[in-house]
Amino acid sequence: MDSRVTKGTPLLEVNNLQKYFPVRSGILSKVTASVKAVDDVTFDIMPGETFGLVGESGCGKTTVGRTILRLMEPSGGEAIFEGENIFAMNSKTLRATRRRMQIVFQDPYSSLNPRMTVGSIVGEPLLVHKLAKGQDLTDRVYQLLERVGLSPDHYSRYPHEFSGGQRQRIGIARALALNPKFIVCDEAVSALDVSIQAQIINLLKDLQEEFHLSYLFITHDLNVVQYIAKRIAVMYLGKLAEVAPSETLFENAKHPYTRALLSANPLPDPTMKHERILLTGDVPSPLNPPSGCRFHTRCPEVMEHCKTTEPPLIQIGESGTEHKVWCHLYS
Amino acid sequence: MNMNAVNSLSPQLDAEKLPPPETPWQEFVRVYKKDRMAIVSSIVLAILVVVGISGKVFTEWVVVFDSEVVRLPDKFLPPLSAPSVDVVPEEDLPILSLYVFGTDELGRDVFARMLQGSFVSLSIGFVAVGISLVVGLFLGGLAGFFGNIKLLKIMTVDTLIMRFTDVMLCIPTFFLILTVVALLPPSIYNIMIVIGLFGWMGTCRFVRAEILALRQQDFVVAAEALGLPKSRIIFRHLIPNAIAPVLVSTTIGVATAILTESALSFLGFGVQPPYATWGNILNDGRGFIFDAPWLFVIPGMAIFVVVLAFNLVGEGLREALNPKLRRR
Fold first, then answer.
1. A35 close to A289: Cβ distance less than 8 angstroms
2. Is A148's CB within 8 Å of B232's CB?
3. Is the CB of residue A170 less than 8 Å from the CB of residue A159?
4. ipTM computed for the complex
5. How is residue A99 annotated by DSSP?
6. Which of A137, A140, A288, B303 lies most in the core, judged by the most C-beta atoms within 10 Å?
7. pLDDT digit string, tens, across residues B41-58
8. DSSP codes of every residue in B220-234
């Protein structure tokens, strides 16, 4: 696919997204601290683009995905989707907007209601939004099932009768039912084994071309994200570290954290020389994140002022390229 | 090999063969059938329901078995003995001229009394548990689904309901029921209501925990993301998945309610004589343990069998309804 970033107005613009989880203690349940799960995250997604979001466990990737869809209430910032701020919507407009943005989950076992048939799982959104009923509804569901590679005989089956890959297809069919423009794939292939992963990723790519979908592809698997995403954002401890087009990121990563992450990625060729950057220590707690640059406690190239001042946003290369990094090394 | 790899990437070929379709109901029946004790217990309970209903019909509406006829010449007859035809008036003779379960200290037919008592026990069991189920489902569901709503800025709905449940649990239920029953006129309905109103706490905690756990599940989040209305999420996604374990605890609750009623009647606070219940038959027989052992063995065994059957059915249901214990 074309690796150049599509110019034009973005489909989704996320500005200074914040999500703090309050920590309560004492008899009166006073808010004594907050877990800064997501802090000041800004990015945008173009129509038809796949935007990858990577980072280690607990860095806030999933929280970003869920707050954008308002499955969690954000603590601050805005998310402009097709010109409207999702965070400012009342419940009625939000319900209407939900038709245009959907989510595919990581765990194919808990993402389907065990007491509903596949047909009613996929058909439910159409029915509730009054988009189809009766024979028309059945036909639409058959089409959707077929489109994601399931057969119409699966219509009256229950989720427990399917394998993980098939269940993920059902989840995708459900997300597609409302004909959305934007889908959050929250670790959508991480629970599957590698051969099934490939099938599902190819399916997602085909669907993207057919329906002109945009994906926010959240994952910790760098090989997967390299294959599917046009641009990739790297997150560390609730903040963005680096955003770059996929190729640039893999060839010319700037942030020390990105480099360490890339060097930890297993390569399929064992003979290839491969310099490993080992990070020491653990990820600090988001309850009390380090001052200055959040990565300074583990950064191999740490400088004195990293510990006190937050790194600014730096544009790498000539203006117009989309390579952004938040690091003092380049200022 | 290479061809296979290419083929498997085509989604259309992934439609692999599935086992024949099975609805959850069919699966439930298949798993439940494997538990022999539960099957036997279900049969026992089915018989008991029939006996209970016929008890109501044949001792009160169409009096075939009269539980109140006093035949002093025939007192303390052991089971399966014949009445003294020459002394007892003809209209007072039991059906088939046989005391199947013997007679008590007033010459009353124990079989007729047990029959009457079976309806009392069963109806108290079901109605009391029905009441506690309704209260428990309502309060537990409220705490689980709307628990985050703040009341008067001091506590949440969840805190209010759950602390009230804790308070109710702290009170020794049986003595509370004794007190209340002593203050109220001792009718069968009052006893049903009192047992029901003091037995919902377990269900309430259970339902709350189930709802809280289910709300974290991805399919409920997905339902929210699809923009489904709250009512649909509750009735289509939460309740069908929460009801199975509740049903299990309810079955066992029926056994507890029957036991509580028997204990109340035994202590003389339950349904009042001459109306017979298993508990007061047992109480009446207490004085004649050595002379007429059938007077306490029969109601005692009946209570034992019914309580055991309800517990075993509950266990069987738990096994068959819990997906984690399921084996294909």
1. no
2. no
3. yes
4. 0.85
5. G
6. B303
7. 999 999 999 998 988 888
8. HHHHHHTT--HHHII
